[in-house]
Structures are given as C-alpha cells and as structure tokens.
From TrEMBL:
Protein name (record): M48 family metalloprotease
Family under the similarity heading: Belongs to the peptidase M48 family.
Record's keyword annotation contains Acetylation: no
Cofactor binding description: Binds 1 zinc ion per subunit.
The keyword Transmembrane helix is annotated on this UniProt entry: no
Extent of the signal sequence: 1-22
Any GO MF annotation of the entry: metallopeptidase activity
Cofactor dependency: Zn(2+)
Organism whose genome encodes this protein: Hymenobacter tibetensis
Family annotation (InterPro entries): Mito/Outer_Membr_Metalloprot (IPR051156), Peptidase_M48 (IPR001915)
Length: 270
C-alpha cells in the first residue's frame, strides 16, 4: 500500500473519530486528534532526528559512552523521582528517555511527544539546587505526559503534515519539526498547566515542590525575560512565580530541603 493511500486511510479514521466529542477531547475538553500510539511513533521519529542532529554537532552526550555513565546516574536519580510520583497519566506508556545536550550557552530543555526529554548543560549549570532541576524536569515531563507537544505541533504544522510523518511521507518536514522542538512556543494554557503539574509531581517527592519557580526568579533577576505578559503567549516570569508558589502553598510542600551533593557533582562533571 502506497504512502498516499495509507495517509488517506488515516485521515478517514480521524474524520470518523471526530464524529464523537468524547473521542477527540481530553479530561479538560482540549482536542486530542492523535492516539497515544501516534504520540509514541511521532516521538520516536522526532527523537531519532534530534539525536542525529546533535550527534553530528558533537553535542549529544551518549548514554552508551562509559565516560557519561556517572552523569546519567545522577540525572536519572532526579528524573525517576519525578516519574515515580504516581501522578503521571502515561508513566507506563511512554519511553521517558532523558538525554543531555552539551551546550553551556543554552539554558533550555524540551520534550518530544512520547516522553523523550532533552536537557541542555547550560540549564543544569544555571540552576542552583536539585529541587530547581526537578521542577524544570517536571515542567517538561508535563508537556509530554499531558500531550501538549503533540497538540502544539498539530496547531503549528497542521494535522495532515503530522499524519504524513507517521507514514514516512515527508522526511524534510520531520527534520524541520525536530529542529524546532527546542523553540516550540506553547500557549498560555499549556505553560500554566506545566507549571502547575511540576508542583503536583514534586509534591509526591522529597523535593521542594516550587522548584520550577527558582528558574524564573533567577531569570527575572538577570533580566533574561522582560517581555510584558500581554505581549507574549507565555505568562511572564513574575506571574508564573506567583502561581507556582501559590500552588506549593496550597499543597504545603514548598519548604523542604534536600542534599545538593549529587546535583553539585552533576554540575561539576557535565
């Protein structure tokens, strides 16, 4: 069966699914036009392309390299606490593969559909403690777990383009999407939900659950994001700090203190 006919069948299946409201919305009433299996397939392709790109640049810290074993032991120790909080919808569905991109000039992290998380070394070195790292990871894990990334890609590129990727229809589009994941701009709703769930996830760990706020506090202090909220699709750092801290106060989990020995070692060897 050719690519065109397979894609047509996917589009027909999608149209049939859209006939019923329950079939195309999540618990919050947001449209979900892809299945979890589609998320996984799309994520595998995007992650393979991202791996190839950063590997070619010499920036991907390979998990298989003996020199990186301790680095990933330390990072996984944080990631797994967040993943095992008991609050994820797709803990057992997605791969939850976390990789480090060696670029100290970039303070960023991003998620593909299906649970592939990428963290830049510059972000880890920018943060001040392990709770902050856990909070930022929780934020990115939320984007994958709540399927924000798929819905945002759907909005940006269109349903037909994404379905084309699933059947191998447009490799050039895959390269473009994979390259743009780090700069994918989520709307206000998704960013607010990711901030909220970073608190919810960390509430079930030993971390201070407002850890993500620390990133915004430091960013704001250094003047890295001064765009007024009404000019941006993102809530500004000040309002995000307030919302994160308010949720942490509600859950009474903001005053915890954990050892930073492992985090300090990670920053030192990364």
């Amino acid at each position: 069966m050719g690519f065109f006919s397979r894609k047509s069948l996917l589009l027909l299946s999608l149209a049939a699914a859209l006939g019923g409201t329950a079939a195309c919305t999540d618990d919050n009433g947001n449209p979900v036009l892809f299945s979890v299996e589609d998320d996984i397939a799309l994520g595998e392709q995007a992650a393979a392309e991202a791996d190839s790109t950063y590997r070619a640049q010499g920036k991907l810290l390979e998990r298989s390299a003996p020199a990186n074993r301790r680095t990933y032991e330390l990072l996984d120790g944080v990631v797994n606490k967040v993943l095992n909080s008991g609050e994820l919808q797709h803990r057992n569905d997605f791969v939850w593969d976390v990789k480090i991109i060696k670029d100290d000039a970039v303070q960023n992290a991003f998620a593909t559909p299906g649970g592939h998380i990428y963290v830049f070394s510059g972000l880890v070195k920018f943060l001040e403690n392990e709770s902050q790292l856990a909070g930022v990871l929780g934020h990115e894990i939320t984007h994958a777990d709540r399927r924000h990334t798929t819905r945002q890609l759907q909005q940006q590129y269109g349903i037909s383009a994404l379905l084309g990727l699933l059947v191998g229809d447009d490799p050039n589009q895959l390269v473009q999407i994979a390259a743009g994941l780090g700069q994918l701009k989520f709307g206000r709703e998704y960013e607010q939900e990711a901030d909220e769930y970073s608190v919810i996830y960390l509430n079930k760990t030993t971390y201070a659950c407002d850890g993500a706020a620390g990133f915004f506090i430091k960013s704001e202090a250094q003047g890295q994001s001064a765009t007024p909220e009404f000019l941006s699709t993102h809530p500004n750092p000040g309002s995000r700090i307030e919302a994160i801290q308010a949720k942490a106060t509600q859950l009474n989990c903001q005053s915890r203190s954990v050892s930073n020995a492992a985090f300090d070692e990670l920053k030192r060897i990364i």
